[in-house]
Amino acid sequence: MTEFAWALVGPGKIARRFASAVRQLSGTRLHSVLGRDADRAQAFAKEFAASRSTTDLAALLADPAVDGVYVATPHSEHGEIVRACLEAGKPVLCEKPLVPSLAQAEPLVALARERCLFLMEAVWTRFLPVYTDVLQGWLREQQAIGELRGLQSSFCFPALYHPDSRLFDPALAGGALLDIGIYNLTVTRWVLQQALGTCPELLTLRAEGVLAPTGVDQRVNATLGFRGDLVSQFICGIDGSSDNALHILGTRGSITLPHNFWQATEARLQLHGELSQTVAAPFRINGFEGEIEEAMRCIRAGLVESPLMPHAESLATLGWMDEIRRQLGVRYPFE
Fold first, then answer.
1. Average pLDDT score over residue span 50-79
2. Which residues contact 127 (CB under 8 A, 6 or more apart)?
3. What domains can you pick out in the chain, each with its CATH number?
4. Looking at the whole model, is its pTM more than 0.85?
């Protein structure tokens, strides 16, 4: 393929960031847009110079010009759409979470492997320069902070409560954990892997939270204990604010992403008794370029999964979130 043609399903807010990155990357373009509202899909397609728009998923997937599909619908719809894509022979980059539960994810991963088709959860954070160029060096190559001791992170913002919104509606797999807490968990796994070479065994997981009137989690506090006396603590919530920072603690010092760690552009290294060092790592476009380029690279190479964001990572994180939701008593009507 000379120019990679993307189809986009779900022309909402997050999809705009994806489409904007695609428009500015070389060797790729937005080919088609699918939405439930025909006018909205058409307007989105026109804005980002897509060749066509449609409300018919089967028609979109039957188009031989489509090289890959990006899914950005509400969480509850991911599973059905991803399965349809794979059954139609289309590789998939699906927004996080891949699906709301481990039980839904395992058959999709098996199907992707059976059909030899690429499938990746779009955890864009793992492809940002601050992680790949700065933290990776400090943690893995330089071991700058000594032995890892633990992590602390927060991701909170105040959302206006409405029972029908995607954040609060259980039918749409709402709740803070699936929407934003997944970042705290996937970054925990990434840091442990960089510092230790692998994510150690999870020994304990304790979660508390506050539920919204609809029954979904509006705030989660969790502590994860790993073999080797390592602890990761986090809070996520859609009912308040926090510093939204990531702190990585070691025997010799600490690493901090002080602002919005999931989309950070700077990191600070603080060694004990020394002045801190801050390094900037800006986006090349808007931050989505890394995951898009990785997906295209893997698809062109005929890979089923990305070595940087493999299926095992998505499954492991979903397993942790299942347990947190179990402890909080959060269940979705489609489970």
1. 97
2. 290, 291, 293, 294, 308, 309
3. 4-124 (3.40.50.720), 129-282 (3.30.360.10)
4. yes
